[in-house]
């Protein structure tokens, strides 16, 4: 255990990395290399007390800090110049109670490790596809993936959160939020975004038994874009909710449209279910395969490997299929993409009794329950000279699609969105501000798009409790 002592006050504990350390450069790097920030100190916490000490240390000295797990914040919110990064990635225990169908998962775990540890007990939870995304932010933002239509979002399976919150003028303390105590904080942790209220250190999830699943992949050429996209967006929400699917349209330079999906069922059933897609356009490649669930997670993770290191992403939700003009917007923008690494990716969420849409938009902080589809518009590049062109392309693309889509997913944050609280949180904005005011009245946990504390009610003093 290393410690960083000051003349007075709380010591920093955990594994401490400062400029000049051989590991500093690797420790400061974000997943999105568009950002290159130079923190004063990075503390890798190994237990809850390290997290408490780090928050106290920062508050006592007036040092700005950020909270980090998987480093996947698309806008670099988990890093900071000249401040402290509180990193929980070395807190990565996973304990499964198969009998009671629950798992206790520390928030430093990347998704691939969660899937592997749960698979050892033949259970899982609905999560995303990127293998190195942190379970912490994934869950706090909602968590969409290839079991969503059947089992809901990651956050819908969250039963309890352990969180370190600010306390008094300079302190920090651990609390537990579940249905019985601090239920408002549990509500906010189901889709209210990462880093807003405190530092989550451990989740308790409901888990589901899993064995084999059947996956598919269909590829078409560019000329089939309009037919295929239109067919997919009508088919995907109407098919059984045991099947969650995606479609990705690449830049015209690449010229492919690929749909993939995962069925809780047999290969024979999946072949029957995808007939409407197979009969659209001219598929050039078709794969249907029954595999152990852990292999399916690796198949879908492959799409997140070997990508260009710098990117700009924005998102939106579709509440009904895009009309012909909307599909044309996709075709036009990808015909004039800044390079071959630009794509539009969509995933089915709602429709046909989906577990996502069965929950009320106000039952959790994630409000986009009635959306049928989530969209991700992305541009990627390597050299800084390409940055402006790529960012402008994404911004223009978002604007052109706006008549047909709504809002944005908080885990696809976008600094260009002016009214981001409404885009991310919709009807739940005011309630989230109340939760923020209650648990973080001094706005200790803040970044460019953190939930604002909002106005105090009259008679409430600055130094509550």
Features:
alpha+beta; 465 residues; globular; 14 helices; seven-stranded antiparallel beta sheet; disordered C terminus; 25% strand; five-stranded mixed beta sheet
Secondary structure layout:
Blueprint: E1 2-4, E2 12-17, H1 24-28, E3 41-44, H2 48-61, E4 65-68, E5 84-87, E6 94-97, E7 102-106, H3 111-119, E8 123-124, H4 135-141, H5 148-151, E9 158-167, E10 171-177, H6 183-189, E11 199-206, E12 208-209, E13 212-221, H7 225-235, E14 243-250, E15 256-263, H8 267-273, H9 275-278, E16 285-292, H10 293-301, E17 310-318, H11 324-335, E18 343-348, E19 373-381, H12 387-401, H13 420-425, H14 429-439
Parallel strand pairs: 3-5, 4-5
Antiparallel strand pairs: 1-2, 2-3, 6-7, 7-11, 8-12, 9-10, 9-11, 13-15, 13-16, 14-15, 14-18, 17-19, 18-19
Helix pairs in contact: 3-10, 7-11, 11-12
Tell me the number of strands. Answer: 19
**Taking all residues together, what is the mean pLDDT?**
95
**What can be said about the biggest beta sheet?**
7 strands, antiparallel
Radius of gyration, rounded?
22 Å
Low-confidence stretches: 457-465
What is the structural class? alpha+beta
- Spatial separation of the terminal alpha carbons: 33 Å
- The outline comes out as globular
Spatial ordering of strands, largest sheet? 16-13-15-14-18-19-17
The helix fraction, in percent, is: 25-40%
Percentage of residues in DSSP E strands: 25-35%
Tally the helices: what do you get?
A: 14
């Amino acid at each position: 255990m290393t410690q960083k002592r000051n003349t007075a006050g709380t010591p920093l504990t955990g594994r401490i990395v400062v400029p000049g350390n051989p590991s500093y450069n690797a420790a400061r790097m974000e997943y999105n290399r568009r950002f290159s920030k130079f923190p004063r100190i990075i503390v890798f916490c190994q237990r809850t007390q390290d997290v408490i000490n780090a928050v106290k240390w920062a508050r006592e000295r007036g040092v700005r800090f950020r909270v980090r797990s998987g480093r996947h914040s698309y806008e670099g919110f988990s890093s900071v110049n000249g401040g402290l990064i509180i990193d929980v990635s070395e807190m990565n225990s996973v304990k499964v109670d198969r009998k009671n169908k629950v798992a206790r998962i520390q928030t430093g775990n990347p998704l691939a490790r969660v899937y592997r540890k749960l698979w050892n007990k033949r259970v899982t939870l609905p999560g995303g596809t990127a293998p190195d995304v942190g379970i912490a932010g994934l869950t706090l933002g909602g968590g969409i993936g290839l079991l969503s239509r059947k089992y809901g979002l990651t956050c819908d399976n969250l039963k309890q959160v352990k969180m370190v919150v600010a306390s008094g003028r300079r302190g920090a303390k651990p609390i537990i939020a579940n249905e019985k105590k601090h239920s408002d904080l549990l509500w906010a942790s189901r889709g209210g975004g990462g880093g807003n209220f405190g530092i989550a250190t451990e989740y308790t999830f409901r888990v589901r038994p899993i064995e084999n699943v059947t996956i598919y992949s269909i590829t078409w050429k560019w000329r089939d874009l309009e037919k295929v996209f239109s067919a997919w967006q009508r088919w995907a929400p109407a098919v059984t909710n045991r099947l969650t699917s995606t479609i990705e349209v690449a830049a015209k330079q690449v010229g492919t449209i690929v749909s993939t999906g995962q069925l809780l069922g047999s290969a024979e059933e999946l072949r029957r279910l995808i007939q409407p897609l197979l009969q659209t356009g001219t598929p050039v490649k078709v794969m249907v395969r029954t595999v152990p669930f852990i292999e399916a997670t690796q198949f879908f993770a492959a799409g997140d490997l070997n990508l260009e290191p710098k990117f700009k992403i924005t998102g939106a939700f579709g509440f009904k299929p895009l009309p012909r003009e909307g599909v044309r917007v996709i075709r036009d923008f990808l015909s004039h993409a800044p390079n071959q690494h630009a794509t539009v990716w969509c995933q089915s969420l709602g429709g046909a009794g989906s577990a996502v849409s069965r929950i009320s938009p106000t039952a959790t902080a994630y409000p986009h329950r009635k959306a049928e589809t989530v969209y991700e518009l992305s541009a990627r590049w390597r050299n800084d000279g390409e940055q402006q062109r790529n960012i402008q392309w994404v911004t223009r693309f978002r604007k052109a699609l706006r008549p047909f889509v709504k809002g944005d997913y908080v885990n696809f944050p976008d600094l260009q969105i002016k009214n981001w609280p409404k885009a991310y949180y919709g009807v739940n904005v005011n309630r989230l501000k109340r939760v923020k005011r209650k648990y973080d009245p001094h706005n200790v946990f803040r970044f460019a798009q953190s939930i604002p504390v909002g106005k105090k009610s009259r008679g409430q003093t600055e130094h509550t409790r």
